[in-house]
Every structure is written in structure tokens, then in C-alpha cells.
Specification:
about 210 residues; mainly alpha; Arc Repressor Mutant, subunit A; Tetracycline Repressor, domain 2; 9 helices; elongated; transcription regulation; transcription; HTH tetR-type domain-containing protein
Length: about 210
């Protein structure tokens, strides 16, 4: 049998892990099961990635890269700030119902990482990257459309992502009808745009 380098095996194992865990859940993603999915020895997984946590981290990075690329491709080049942001939010939301996007798996992995010391840092790095990419898209959109931002791009990104994560959990846990989902997304987009433009009234909220 021809030797396959670790560099060649890496994307194969990532795909095998994604396919397996998409079908059967994160709990089923042992190194033994992932190796069997690809038809290689379990030692191949450890040789290529070192630990299961390293493989999971690579899976999170891969799915995030795919989602970011999908959303960036959906950005209109000649629309105003509000329409552009709505298009981006709609594209991201559409991936939630698209099996090939693996967004549900990414959510499951993120929650799983909360309980795994070896993955907690990866979870934090992943979410910080998502914030940074979202902030960059917001800043570039504002610059292209001439929209002055009343808040920093990172603040607007965090606001949007917090609401989006909440809507995502509602879909995964309670499966609301499509009309309710769309209403929630439209409200989130409107509130985010209002925050960006400085027209959202932010009352003082006691924290203690």
C-alpha cells in the first residue's frame, strides 16, 4: 500500500470526522470511529493530529472557514449598508437549514468544548475569530457604503452574534415555524443596523 503523508491525510480525516459527527453527533466522534469512517488504523489519527482535541479543533476551523466564505460570497457589491447587512445575515441564517454547511455540528462542538479542558482554549479562539471576521465585514461594508458607525465594528459584531446565537439555539431546541424564525431574524437585523447607525436607544441597565 502506498504511503500517504500526514499532510494528505489531514483533510481526509477532517472530512471523515465531519461526516461521522454530522450523522451521529459529537459523542460518537472517537478517534477509533473516525479512523473506521476513513478506513485507516486508529494510530493514523494520532500520528496526524496528536490528540482528539487537536482533530476537533481542526474540524471547528474547517467549518468556520466554509461558513465565512459562504457569507462573504453572498455580499452584494452595489447595495447600501442596510441591504448588504441583511443579505449577509440572511446568507448566514440560510446555512442553519443547509446540511452541507455543518452549522449545527459547529454549535454542538462549541457547547461540547465548554466541558473539555483541552478544547476550551480552542473554543475561545474560535469565537474570537468569528467576532473579528464579522467586525471586519461590518467595517468594510460601512466603508464601501459611506455609512458612519456610531459604535465600533466589534461592538456591532458582538451584538449581532449574541442575538444570532440565541436564535440558533431556539431553532435547535424548540424548532419554531419558519415565519417565526424570519421575524426574529428581521428584528435582529433591524436592531443591529439601528445600533450601527446610532438610532438604537440604549438604556442604562443595572448589573448588580
Amino acid at each position: 500500500m502506498a504511503h500517504v503523508s500526514a499532510a494528505e491525510r489531514r483533510p481526509q480525516l477532517i472530512k471523515a470526522a465531519i461526516d461521522l459527527m454530522t450523522r451521529e453527533g459529537v459523542a460518537a466522534g472517537s478517534t477509533r470511529a473516525i479512523a473506521a469512517e476513513l478506513g485507516v488504523a486508529q494510530a493514523t489519527v494520532h500520528y496526524t493530529f496528536g490528540t482528539k482535541e487537536d482533530l476537533y479543533r481542526a474540524v471547528m476551523d474547517q467549518i468556520t472557514d466554509e461558513l465565512v466564505a459562504h457569507v462573504q460570497r453572498a455580499a452584494p457589491e452595489d447595495a447600501g449598508f442596510e441591504k448588504t447587512f441583511s443579505a449577509l445575515a440572511g446568507a448566514l441564517w440560510g446555512t442553519l437549514r443547509e446540511p452541507t454547511s455543518h452549522q449545527q455540528l459547529l454549535t454542538e462542538l462549541t457547547m461540547f468544548a465548554l466541558r473539555v479542558p483541552g478544547l476550551n482554549e480552542a473554543r475561545q479562539s474560535h469565537y474570537q475569530r468569528v467576532i473579528e471576521v464579522t467586525a471586519q465585514v461590518i467595517a468594510e461594508t460601512a466603508d464601501r457604503t459611506g455609512q458612519k458607525l456610531a459604535e465600533s465594528p466589534e461592538t456591532v459584531a458582538r451584538f449581532f452574534l449574541s442575538g444570532f446565537d440565541g436564535l440558533t439555539m431556539q431553532v435547535l431546541l424548540s424548532a419554531p415555524d419558519e415565519a417565526t424564525e424570519r421575524t426574529g431574524l428581521r428584528a435582529l437585523v433591524a436592531a443591529t443596523v439601528a445600533l450601527a447607525k446610532g438610532s438604537l436607544d440604549l438604556p442604562d441597565v443595572p448589573t448588580a
